[in-house]
């Protein structure tokens, strides 16, 4: 049976200013800290069920040292290892417990040199009595501090390599479905939005010839339930002196956004809400042309600066 | 390969007062009419991609004459027919075109005698120029009239037969996953919420010893993007003289709701928003006890009358 | 020149459980504490400009020991004292500084024996550097903790004395305008909503023959900017184990509400949003009959229990 | 007794493309049409109590031919006429009925040559049975069509004349209170926000040395109850091909906005929500410096183009 990815699992963030990154993600954004082990802070949103969806540790260069994907079955971890090796990809095993709460896992470089991790076993840690929700199906109480998003949502990668090759790898080797894409007149892709879930994207990859490398992170994203919460988030970010763009609405995905920069690591965080779900098994990917690209990125609202030099990224 | 259900497809509503039901669903709720064929009105929400998610025709007794489920693959229709027959279930083929836009399909009675339909082929009809969205990934413009929900969401069935048997059938024969349930001290289920998608439920089934039959419909549901839209919906329903309960928030599913009654057919429509998604492949169903049932149904807000006699249902 | 009231100023709350009341108003509701003087805690919402809009001190019986009204001009304080004395009302002067931040003031009993205070001078205290807003026209940052209402809104009083006499006193002696009222067939009033501002009511008074006294407080109210914030408030209240009714929408005032009980003092707090403003100088009061009273109280949503015995009140 | 203004009454819009302006204001924005008399269309929002708050007629040049202010008392109309004449201002009487629903009124030019109208008598027209609200205190049903704002809010004027003189006239001759202002280093004003109501502004006036004349209209504004409604408005405007800027939040007034252009007349319409109210009788105007001006205009969100040439205005 072909191994399958079930979901985006977590981000391993390295920050040159750990104190500031923890302030940003814990106090301003309002993530909960599960525990701190060996200097690594394990965080999650109030509605995340796994031990963590974001880990942060100090380092000399800010980056995502891995982007982790959970498989559908325990045996899929080995099966993915086999199929990737068969495809010529080198893998590196991560011993159980190397990341707190996590079982057997391995990491590998995508053709673009982004570092991915594959795992299945992860503790579904209960919240502490102090922050636990009264609801049995909810991990922590919501609205404890700051923006208070519900859960991890997606990752958006940038590369100086053509998008199509990356998208093909994600489809062929990892089973992602293409949902929406921007196509240049020469048939190349400028961006591709892909998922294994009904979300329009668990991952997006974009081509930027001026990107500093083949393996950049444009942003990581967490989800809010209501668009109104995004407006509340804007107030909170502004009062805390955080630089952000938005709110606005994407054409692609129909979702609303704010893009805020973590002042510690420089990683861009998208706060994301609304949008549509794809339940159709025979979905025909939505194709956007160059002419339609602007409305695809920004249907309305405050838009990102299109110049690369104003949009620093970090590596993954 | 085992056949699989991809999603809830549509409801076939029969109304003793077609004019009033059409007014309710088209003008007050704001569904769009794809077409009218042989006296059957085919409706969908602005974000539904298929030809219809609700059909309404006149009849002598109001009921859902079928609840339709779309398969993952075309060949799953035959495969389901085989597996159900092998299980002793009688099936009845529905010729392509019998329902506008739909290909080969069949209907069968669940053990509770609810009528289900299985299909794969359905036209993904474009909206007319007048109501088409400027967005390529959206069918109709939103907010044309009334409440304006985005899409079909789920169905909630009621039966005088024990829930567990019904739930077992849905799990074993149709591949649904149990997400949350209410368990009586004797181990029987009073309600079960199940899905094939990451929604907490595509279908819920409840046990009521006083239900008029084994095959009742508690409600059908459509989805709104934002909780604020639910408050706007309350204003619209009230101005139109529609009876409803809510707004409120469920503990089970964490979703917000209004329950409105179609004055034509008497079917209860849940307008539904927020809540959580289940991406974990190893989800452990949430068990609610009798003591916790009240908070499970109504976490806060205006609640449904618990007496069966105040809660008329229609058959399916 | 006739003295005039400009606005509702503040509430002087006495609580039999000061610790619990402070937890409720500071942590759950999210009011800011300006200072604590002589055991009195002075609180306000983030958008309140005056030194305090609520003071809380410990006492043997929970009550509002005064409801304070600010005059339009400094000299109106003396003028009100004169006109009330001329009308046979006894007044009691409150020395400047008796209440922190406040200048010359006096208290008196309304004909219903509710204790009112009249003042003009009050310090417009800046927020501390830690909680100050970056906006020059806003006192504290919003969303620091809990529900986080913007400002004080109104007070609702209950009496076993007829409403009309109370309403007449408020109109004739204090200059309130009648905005909406409920009239019994015999011409008596069951409730009256009155204001000196364009708010539909700064004060409401209701008649209940079963009220424990002539001078009860039904609720005090704080304002939220958005209805969505009310739904967020419901989640916060529920997670903190606070008893509340709502959310719902009043017909009278068109505003949305939650009624929560302070577990310390037992005072009912209305969290209030939306509704209309009255700018017309020739407003004709809206008259509601007994038949219309239900929709006047609850247009839709979760309603208050109508039985007095389930609705404990505190005295003022 | 000094005459007083109670509120902003209505706008008299002249459009070079009446059909398009009516489509914009009636279908897209969703104003209700009270009646059409002599080619003039009289409109209002669902929560406006007066006969109209906007009239639209065809003309060769788009402009506001008057901005009307309601007095507090009937006799204030004559009193204003006297005081303005005494101040050297020419007035022109408008016979009762010249504008449908309106009694005795007069028009005059402000020192900036903007045309103002003063009136007291205006019919408070009931809504027709078809669109009437079930609520006694609400004129029309809300949410009948389009954006569906509740009521008229304010007007924003632009002039090539210094702001301070205009602001002084409004304060001294008409009784407006200065609420917020932008001051240049030389003590001149670049903008002033003023009101007779607790709204932060019923009128704002700005100085632009490059304005095409001394008597321009920057925008007229209508009010929405909730910020979420503004996001819904953005979707509606976009689907209808209307050019707009926003959503965003002002620092000055703390209100959220969208600025949309009527494709018929070119007038800019601000859709406006949230913000604060001023109940303090001794309000100290908030002073913004040039350095703070940007945050004053746009606290966050999509901002207006600051160049005059991209911001066409119409005359008043």
Automatic annotation (TrEMBL), chains A, B, C, D:
Give the GO molecular function terms. dioxygenase activity; metal ion binding
Q: What is the lineage of its organism?
A: Bacteria, Bacillati, Bacillota, Bacilli, Bacillales
- List residues of the VOC domain: 7-121, 151-274
Q: Which Pfam families match?
A: Diox-like_N, Glyoxalase
Asked if Oxidoreductase is a keyword of the record, the answer is: yes
The protein's UniProt keywords, in alphabetical order, are: Aromatic hydrocarbons catabolism, Dioxygenase, Metal-binding, Oxidoreductase, Repeat
Which family does the similarity line name? Answer: Belongs to the extradiol ring-cleavage dioxygenase family.
Domain of life according to the entry:
Bacteria
SUBUNIT field = Homotetramer.
Protein name as annotated: Catechol 2,3-dioxygenase
**PANTHER family from the UniProt entry:** FOSFOMYCIN RESISTANCE PROTEIN FOSX, LYASE, PUTATIVE-RELATED-RELATED
């Amino acid at each position: 049976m072909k191994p399958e990815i079930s979901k985006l699992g977590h981000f391993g963030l390295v920050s040159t200013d750990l104190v500031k990154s923890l302030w940003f993600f814990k106090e301003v954004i309002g993530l909960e800290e599960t525990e701190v082990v060996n200097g690594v802070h394990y965080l999650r949103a109030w509605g995340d069920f796994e031990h963590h969806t974001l880990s942060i540790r100090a380092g000399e260069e800010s980056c995502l040292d891995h982007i982790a994907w959970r498989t559908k079955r325990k045996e899929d971890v080995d099966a993915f290892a086999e199929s990737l090796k068969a495809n010529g990809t080198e893998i590196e095993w991560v011993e159980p417990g190397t990341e707190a709460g996590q079982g057997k896992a391995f990491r590998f470089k995508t053709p673009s040199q982004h570092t991915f991790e594959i795992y299945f076993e992860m503790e579904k840690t209960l919240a502490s009595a102090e922050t636990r929700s009264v609801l049995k199906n909810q991990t922590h109480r919501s609205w404890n501090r700051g923006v208070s998003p519900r859960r991890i949502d997606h990752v958006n990668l940038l590369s100086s390599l053509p998008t199509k090759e990356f998208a093909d790898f994600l489809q062929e080797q990892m089973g992602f479905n293409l949902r929406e894409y921007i196509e240049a007149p020469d048939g190349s892709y400028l961006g591709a939005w892909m998922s294994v879930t009904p979300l329009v994207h668990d991952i997006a990859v974009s081509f930027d010839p001026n990107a500093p490398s083949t393996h950049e992170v444009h942003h990581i994203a967490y989800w809010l339930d209501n668009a109104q919460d995004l407006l509340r988030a804007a107030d909170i970010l502004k009062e805390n002196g955080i630089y952000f763009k938005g709110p606005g609405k994407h054409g692609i995905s129909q979702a609303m956004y704010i893009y805020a920069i973590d002042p510690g690591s420089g990683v861009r965080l998208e706060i994301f809400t609304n949008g549509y779900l794809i339940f159709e098994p025979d979905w025909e990917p939505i194709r956007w042309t160059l002419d339609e690209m602007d409305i695809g990125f920004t249907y309305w609202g405050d838009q990102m600066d299109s110049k690369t030099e104003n949009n620093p990224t970090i590596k993954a």
